[in-house]
């Protein structure tokens, strides 16, 4: 597997150029010069929030190379506290400080292989640009989108344009199959014939995907979401417990050594 070329993040004065409510989420389109051009699937942006010391880390759902505003990026916001509520309420024209792209991206296969992408809720956002990159490399892409209910299912229709096969799971059975990723992970990996499993979502989803991959002989990468107060690695406020290549337990920074790490390296019980 080969990592994308390293490119440093930039800090810019961005602008909200479009905003749309879709189900339980708010989709924001941001003009942030220099950020879309450096983006790689799995990296994220950090946005300043009025009245808050810490910034909010947001997954990038889509990048447009050109528009009336120049290159733009789309982020998905779930209102879960005062910071994300403020972001969700901002109208077109709001200026926001954006830093990014931050973190390590998903590693892309050097050869065309079979890939299974598993995502839950808004955190599935980075899997959509990842699917596009994988298809460009000739990979067979299967996609699983999961959520507690239909309102929090991210872009199910778009998913059908992004992959050769799509499985939709909702915990309440409101759309697609009833159940959670943990109930279906191993079966999904086996049926897809995946050589590589990518996952994004809550820790239980990531753990289920990583364990299923290991049991079936596949290789896994997971995009771990933990609070990242600064997003740049300076505050050390986003501890991620892992096992190093040398077999020694250690704690790394999710925003710099992550957010994407090998699934078999995460110490899930300590997360």
What does this structure look like?
It is a single chain. It contains six helices and 15 strands. It has helices at residues 35-38, 82-88, 127-136, 156-162, 181-192, 203-216, and strands spanning 10-22, 25-31, 44-47, 56-64, 72-77, 95-102, 114-120, 140-147, 165-170, 177-178, 196-200, 219-223, 239-243, 249-253, 260-262. Helices cover 20% and strands 34% of the residues. The strands form three sheets. The chain has a seven-stranded mixed beta sheet, sandwiched between helices. The longest helix has 14 residues, at 203-216. The protein is an alpha/beta fold and 271 residues long. The chain folds into two domains: 10-102, Translation factors (Elongation Factor Tu (Ef-tu), domain 3, Beta Barrel), CATH 2.40.30; 114-222, Rossmann fold. The radius of gyration is 18 Å and the shape is globular.
Percent range for β-strand residues: 25-35%
Order of helices and strands: EEHEEEHEEHEHEEHEHEEEE
Overall CATH class of the largest domain: Alpha Beta
Largest sheet: 7 strands, mixed
Please list the strands of the largest sheet in the order they lie side by side.
10-9-8-7-11-12-15
* Parts with pLDDT < 50 across at least 5 consecutive residues: 1-6
Helix content: 10-25%
Roughly how many Å is the radius of gyration?
Answer: 18 Å
Distance between the terminal alpha carbons, to the nearest Å?
Answer: 26 Å
Secondary-structure content class? alpha/beta
Return the average pLDDT rounded to an integer: 92
CATH superfamily of the largest domain: Nucleotide-binding domain of ferredoxin-NADP reductase (FNR) module
Globally, the shape reads globular
The name CATH uses for the topology of the largest domain is Rossmann fold
Got a strand count? 15
């Amino acid at each position: 597997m080969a990592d994308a070329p390293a490119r440093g993040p930039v800090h810019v004065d961005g602008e909200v150029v479009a905003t749309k409510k879709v189900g339980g989420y708010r989709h924001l389109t941001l003009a942030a010069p220099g950020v879309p051009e450096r983006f790689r699937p799995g990296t994220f942006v950090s946005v300043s929030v009025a009245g808050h010391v810490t910034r909010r880390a947001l997954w990038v759902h889509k990048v447009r190379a050109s528009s009336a505003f120049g290159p733009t990026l789309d982020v998905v916001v779930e209102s879960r506290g005062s910071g994300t509520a403020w972001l969700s309420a901002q109208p077109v024209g709001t200026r926001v400080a954006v830093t990014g792209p931050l973190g390590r991206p998903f590693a892309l296969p050097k050869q065309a292989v079979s890939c299974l992408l598993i995502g839950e809720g808004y955190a599935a956002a980075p899997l959509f640009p990842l699917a596009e990159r994988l298809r460009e490399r000739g990979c067979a892409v299967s996609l699983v989108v999961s959520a507690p209910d239909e309102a929090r299912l991210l872009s199910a229709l778009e998913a059908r344009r992004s992959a050769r096969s799509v499985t939709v799971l909702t915990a309440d059975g409101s759309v697609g199959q009833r159940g959670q990723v943990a109930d279906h992970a191993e079966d999904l990996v086996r049926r897809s014939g995946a050589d590589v499993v990518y996952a994004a979502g809550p820790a239980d989803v990531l753990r289920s995907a990583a364990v299923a991959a290991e049991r079936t002989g596949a290789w896994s990468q997971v995009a771990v979401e933990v609070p990242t107060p600064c997003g740049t690695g300076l505050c050390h406020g986003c501890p991620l417990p892992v096992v190093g290549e040398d077999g020694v337990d250690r704690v790394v920074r999710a925003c710099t050594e992550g957010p994407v790490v090998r699934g078999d390296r995460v110490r899930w019980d300590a997360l």
